[in-house]
Amino acid sequence: MDYFEAIVMGAIQGITELFPVSSLGHAVLIPALVGGSWAKDLSVSAPESPYLAFIVGLHVATALALLLFFRRDWVRIIRGFFSSIRNRRIQTAPERLFWLLVIATIPVGVTGLVLEHTFRTVLGKPVPAAIFLMINGVVLGAGELLRRRAARRATVPVPVETGEPGALGEDAVLATIPRWRAVAIGAAQTFALLPGISRSGVAMVGGMAVGLSHREAARFSFLLATPVILAAGLLKLPDLFGPLGNGIQGQVLAGSAAAFVAALIAVGFLDRYFRTRTLLPFAVYSVLAGGGSLLWLTVHG
Q1: Nearest one of 197, 172, 17 to 100, comparing CA atoms
Q2: What is the pLDDT of residue 257?
Q3: CA–CA dist 47, 248 (Å, integer)
Q4: What pLDDT sits at residue 153?
Q5: What is the C-alpha to C-alpha distance for residues 43 and 9, in angstroms, rounded to an integer?
Q6: Which residues contact 238 (CB under 8 A, 6 or more apart)?
Q7: pLDDT in tens, 109-124
Q8: Chain centroid to CA 96: how far?
Q9: How far apart (Å, rounded) are the C-alpha atoms in residues 142 and 280?
Q10: What is the pLDDT of residue 162?
């Protein structure tokens, strides 16, 4: 892996981890479409691929960017944890939001530990990734369509998507999500183990299904993804200091720096974008990119 590959794939990871278009799908498809040394050096399905150690660094960098952007939110949420322990009850919105995030993280955490290796080695190949990327587009489009139909039938107006990150009242809105629905949103993230299915995308669709606005659903998906991405990265961080990381530490640092900057820009953009816009452009992109990739791989494979 050279530095150019590392920086390009790092930037793509930082963007696609947060955009609802699947970072793992792009990590699989882009090297295959470019071909040559990229396809050889950057394979996630190989059992002992240095590319896996590289991706670990990118995940940690992306999670750190999310922590920085939502730092005020996380300060309130962590304070809510300590106050709930101290008072032995859950009363405030930050307290309830902390425990909602905990229980919503359990399904994807357990499933990831059990099935991540199997899914990656069996399905982490270009053709399945292209197919799942198309499915991702269908899921995003269906979620958007169902939300619009629900909004037309509703007797109350759709929530107004305004305010700044961490604005007063946002915690209260997210904290009203029923526990079982928070678990369902978290469980939906397990589909992101399939290359091409977006973690943020399925979580947003799940959030909108329980009545959240686009921006609220995006915020909940980012808060929910932060501990998952960070834990997954830290769990495999020793790989960087073992045989898989030999000779690529510099490339990991360069790629991680690119991922951090790209993720910080991406989350800021999406926070503004989802105040007034929808998932439809990402749905169209996923279907076209997945279908185009599948066609290319079929013809040139």
Answers
A1: 172
A2: 96
A3: 17
A4: 56
A5: 12
A6: none
A7: 888 777 776 777 777 8
A8: 23
A9: 9
A10: 39
Cα-based angle 271, 203, 82 (whole degrees, multiple of 5): 80
- Average model confidence (pLDDT) for the chain? 86
Residues 6+ apart with CB under 8 A from 14: 58, 61, 62, 65, 258, 259, 260, 261, 262, 263, 264, 265, 266
Q: Smallest Cα–Cα separation from 182: which of 102, 95, 100, 106?
A: 100
- pTM for the model: 0.87
Handedness of CA 126, 127, 129, 134 (dihedral sign): positive
pLDDT in tens, 247-263: 788 899 999 999 999 99
Q: Which residues contact 199 (CB under 8 A, 6 or more apart)?
A: 17, 22, 23, 189, 192, 221, 225, 228
Please give the C-alpha separations between residue 85 and each of 29, 80, 89, 96, 287, in angstroms, as whole numbers: 45, 9, 7, 12, 46
Amino acid at site 103 = I
DSSP 8-state secondary structure symbol assigned to residue 157: P
What is the spatial distance between Cα 16 and Cα 75, in angstroms, rounded to a whole number? 26
Structure tokens at 261: 């900057």
Q: Please name the residue ranges forming H helices in the chain.
A: 3-16, 23-34, 37-41, 50-69, 71-87, 93-123, 126-153, 170-175, 179-188, 199-209, 214-235, 249-273, 280-300
Q: What tokens appear for 208 in the block?
A: 């909108």
3-state secondary structure (DSSP) of residue 44: coil
Distance CA 55, CA 236 (A): 10
CA terminus-to-terminus distance, the chain: 23
One-letter identity of residue 164: E
